[in-house]
Amino acid sequence: MAVLTLADYSASPKPLISGVADVLRDASKLMDILPFANVGALSVQVIREAGLPSVSWRRAGEDHGSSKGRVDLVQETAFSFGNYIDVDKMYVKNSNTLYDARSLWTKQAVKSMAFAFNDKFITGNPEVDPDAITGINYRIQKDHSANKIAGAGLDISPDAAALAANTQTFFDFLDQLLYDMPEGGSKYLITNKTLLMRYWSLARQAGVLSVTKDQLGRELYQYKNATFIDAGYKSDQTTQIIGNVENANGTTLTGGACTSIYGVTVGQEFLTGWQEYGLEVDDAGLLEDRVTYRTVIDWVIGLAVTHPRSLYQLHGIIAA
């Protein structure tokens, strides 16, 4: 089964596809870390590990017993993700501009797609929006509630009364989070800007701040074998996707003063993306109305969780 990443799409010989992929990579680190397995179907049945087989011990001359592991069969669905980008011919023909109108409109639309994906990756709720991917918060609350670590209102904000002691407890929680995550795959700690900046400050003061760069030259902050990622803002570009107003137990995204760190293991055996077909970008040209140029972006994608410990939530942290 072929597996593609946004980096692969960026290397496409088709300029429209590579251009769209470049913008998606730049605007969505979450999309950039995911592999997308080429499935060729609108739904897949994921075999999720539920229990290991027992092992027998025997004496000479005796037979081994037979045992099978337990699995859960989980149905995952893909959704069409894209946009029509319509530009009036008046803008296209206007030569008194610094930028090509269709390129500018397309870049804006693709950025919006990236921000929408980031949002749904965290907050997607099929009970609220059944036509989009199911986010990791919902998956943890419904299917992986044992994978939650209670921060119990730990305050690491700059004006915390017991900041020195709370800092040590915070690093203890990070160690617990990483220890509980499974071996293998790529490890990510997904949070918001506020908490990331607090980690940056505390880690720098503790002498454990590790900074690397990705393929695009962006700085990445690491703790041991995991990379921090800021989930960023919603499409309005003012509201953080992971806010600072969660309740203490992390089950609701509003109604409190806390935030979360999501420990995510990415890989085909853990959390992965998948696609019915590859990213498509088509220049439909001038429409029948003869005054509108259209570009169509379409990508049918989904998420799938195989390993039961692929997703964790450290909740109840006060960072602001």
Compact overview of the structure:
The protein has eight helices and 14 strands. It is α+β, with helices and mostly antiparallel strands and 320 residues long.
What does this structure look like?
Pfam families: GP7. This is Phage major capsid protein. InterPro entries: GP7-like. This protein is α+β, with helices and mostly antiparallel strands. The protein has two domains: 3-51 and 70-130 and 270-305, 2-Layer Sandwich (Major capsid protein gp5 fold); 136-266 and 309-318, capsid protein of prophage fold (2-Layer Sandwich). It has helices at 6-10, 15-27, 29-32, 89-93, 101-123, 136-143, 163-180, 193-206, and strands spanning 3-4, 36-38, 43-51, 70-77, 79-88, 148-155, 186-191, 210-213, 219-223, 226-230, 259-266, 271-286, 292-305, 311-318. It has a seven-stranded mixed sheet with strand order 6-14-11-7-10-9-8, sandwiched between helices. A five-stranded mixed sheet has the order 1-2-12-13-5. A two-stranded antiparallel sheet has the order 3-4. β9 (219-223) and β10 form a beta hairpin. The radius of gyration is 23 Å and the shape is globular. The mean pLDDT is 94.
Salient structural properties:
Major capsid protein gp5 fold, 8 helices, 2 domains, capsid protein of prophage fold, seven-stranded mixed beta sheet, alpha+beta, 33% strand, 320 residues
Rg, nearest Å: 23 Å
Taken together, the total number of domains comes to 2
The level 1 CATH classification of the largest domain is Alpha Beta
Q: Number of helical segments?
A: 8
Distance between the termini: 45 Å
Low-confidence stretches: none
What is the CATH H-level superfamily of the largest domain? Major capsid protein gp5
Percent of sequence in beta strands: 25-35%
**Largest sheet composition:** 7 strands, mixed
Give the SSE string: EHHHEEEEHHHEHEHEEEEEEE
Which structural class should the secondary elements be placed in?
alpha+beta
At CATH level 2, the architecture of the largest domain is 2-Layer Sandwich
CATH topology of the largest domain: Major capsid protein gp5 fold
Overall 3D shape = globular
Q: Based on DSSP secondary structure assignment, what is the total number of beta strands?
A: 14
Strand order of the largest sheet: 6-14-11-7-10-9-8
Mean pLDDT across all amino acids: 94
Helix content: 25-40%
Organism: Candidatus Magasanikbacteria bacterium GW2011_GWE2_42_7
Pfam families: GP7
Protein name: Phage major capsid protein
